[in-house]
Amino acid sequence: MIKFIGKLPRKCTVAFSGGVDSVAVADFLIRGKRDVSLAFFHHGTKTSDEAEDFVKAFSITNGVNLTIGRLDRQRTKGLSEEEHWRIERYAFLETLPGPVVTCHHLDDAVETWIFTSLHGQGKLIPYSRDNIVRPFLLTPKSELVSWCQRKDLKWCEDFSNTDVKHMRNLVRHRIVPEALKVNPGLRTVIMKKYLEITL
Predict the structure, then answer these.
(1) φ and ψ at residue 143, rounded to 5 degrees
(2) CATH number of the domain at 11-198, please?
(3) What tens digit of pLDDT does each residue of 131-144 get?
(4) 108: which of 21, 56, 121, 186 is 20 to 30 A away, CA to CA?
């Protein structure tokens, strides 16, 4: 079941990568009769070229507006590639009329909590920041995948998400599975933390 925090906005822009998470969220909101627009950020890669074609087709099929942002600044020395992408992507999203819905889910929250704990202090992904909201932080990724499968929806895969040279991917693919062996209820722990904050 797809769960969300608070009330979903009647009108919003979905940060849309074309991946399974964003396809599920966009489709969920469209079926829920929300007034949805899409925002896609091109990271200057071949994968983004392929994703852009998919995103354009999705927007046409669903009759929704699409805004495209593009990476146009060089990476600052000392900044990792993934951090550079994240900063530029959010800079683009913050130029859009809110609310902008990102497709962060419960597994992202678990990953972030572990990642930040390894750096000294465990942190939750905030529900909101400026014009950006993250209503789906209570939904496991498996539910988003299941939604797309049940609705026979297509999505595009970003194979860089499996490259463990990126620290986030290392945490996601190697550390999180081991952490879940230590505490299989870790997702529930993080979910309860969000409920404590939002109730």
Answers:
(1) -70, -35
(2) 3.40.50.620
(3) 999 999 999 999 99
(4) 56
